[in-house]
Each structure stands twice: as structure tokens, then as C-alpha cells.
Amino acid sequence: MPEKKIYTLTSARNDRVFIHVMPGHFVSANNHINYYIGTSDIKHNHRVSVDAAMLLSSYYNENNIEVDTVLCLYETQPLGAFLAHELSRPNMMSPNPNQTVYTIGAEYDAAGNLIFRDNLVRMIKDKNVVVLISCITSGRTVERAMESIEYYGGRVAGVSSVFSAVEKIRGIFVNTLFTGEDVPSYRAYPAHNCPYCAQGIPVDAISNGYGYSKL
Predict the structure, then answer these.
(1) Phi/psi class of residue 196: alpha, beta or left (left: φ > 0; alpha: ψ in -120 to 50)?
(2) First to last CA, the chain
(3) Which of 48, 47, 58 is nearest to 10 (CA)?
(4) Cα 98 to Cα 118: distance, rounded to the nearest angstrom
(5) In the prediction, which pLDDT does 124 show?
(6) Which long-range contacts (CB under 8 A, 24 or more apart) does 163-168 make?
(7) CB-CB contact of 25 with 196 (8 Å)
């Protein structure tokens, strides 16, 4: 893949929270997309992650949404831990939380189903669970996670992301740091109807929630 220009976008609410955006032809699990959204600093840089968690937590505090567990998809556990910390500590909206907010990662079986081991089920069953993910394009990955939470007896309390191209998933508002309005030309296409493929433009990289691999 030839070198692509990488742009940095900062949050309007906190200029220390940022993502990287790279144009090109990328293949994700469900679509072909024209931008790779880089969220590595929010997921792995302590300072950026703490500030991002504070922004995400404000939605739940301001709307009085109780959260017991943060389910972290695609290496968002550090961000999820900071989010859990913000949601569990006393603040003006929730002065006496009297609760622990769990942070758990995702595990998939051979068929791609999200599963929870017996020692973790107690953190899902009868709990209010927030799904945390780095990027949402179509929402299918989050939908599968929501279904799994319900299979195990949990309740989906919310969806949070670093970037989301959709506003709602299954009727639940997506609490996100960056939206499609921040990347107005962002587009996703089904593999069978990709204009880049139709023009013979080669794929630059395979991308997923962990990053991208050049071709």
C-alpha cells in the first residue's frame, strides 16, 4: 500500500482527545470503507484514554443511566476500565453509587458467537451492560453483542464508541466521541456493490477493530 496522508481530528469537547483518519480502500468484516479510523491513542494512550472516558461517562451520568458492567470489544479494555472508574465514583449526578462497575472483554467461539465463561456470567446476568467498541460502521457487530448479553440474562444499558457512523442501534442511542459528521465523506459499501472494486481500484488494507494490515 503506498503511503497515505493521515489526518488528525480532535474532539470539540476536549482537544486532548483525538483520532486519526486515513483515506483509501479498506475491507472490514462487513463492508468496504473509504476511510480507516485510527483509534489507537484513545485505546492505548493513558492520558488520552482517561479524558475520553470522562467524555463518555457524562452521557450516563447526565441521563441517570445505571451501569453495572462495561463489555469491551476490540481491545477497548483500558478505555473501559477508565469508563468504569468514572461511572462508579461519586459525582453530582450520582453522589452515592454504592456499586462496583465490572469491566470484561469479549470472547468468541469458532462460529463467531460472543460467549461468557461461567466465572463471568454473574457480571452479565441481571446486570445493566454497556457495549464499548472502537468503531461502528453498520452496527452489526454491536447487534450481535447485544443479542449475546440478552441470551445470558443481561440488559443492554447503552452503547458507547470512539467513532460511529450510525446514531442508533436497535433503538438505543450510540454515545460516541466522533460521528459521521466529523468525517462527512465517510462511506461504507457492501462487498458486491463497492465502487472502488468496480473501478478496479485495489484494496489498500484489511481493517478491523484491532487495526489494519497492508496488502
Answers:
(1) alpha
(2) 6
(3) 48
(4) 25
(5) 97
(6) 163/19, 163/37, 163/39, 163/134, 163/135, 163/136, 164/135, 164/136, 165/136, 165/137, 165/138, 166/136, 166/137, 166/138, 166/139
(7) yes
Is 39 in contact with 97 (CB distance < 8 Å)?
A: no
**Residue in the structure block whose three cell numbers are 476490540:** 74
Number of residues in the chain = 215
* Positions of the chain with pLDDT lower than 50, given as ranges: 95-96
Which residue matches cell numbers 492520558?
47
Question: What are 79's three cell numbers?
Answer: 478505555
pLDDT the model gives residue 75: 92
For residue 150, which amino acid is it?
E
pLDDT at 74: 92
Three-state SS sequence of 123-192:
CCCCCEEEEEEEEECCCHHHHHHHHHHHHCCCEEEEEEEEEECCCEECCEEEEEEEECCCCCCCCEECHH
Cell matching residue 90 = 461519586
**What digits encode the pLDDT tens for the residues 61-119?**
999 999 999 999 999 999 999 999 999 887 655 544 557 899 999 888 887 789 999 99
Nine cell digits for residue 92 = 453530582
CA atoms within a 13 Å half-sphere pointing along the CA-CB vector of 103: 17
**All cell numbers assigned to 21:** 483518519
**Residue 96: what pLDDT?**
44
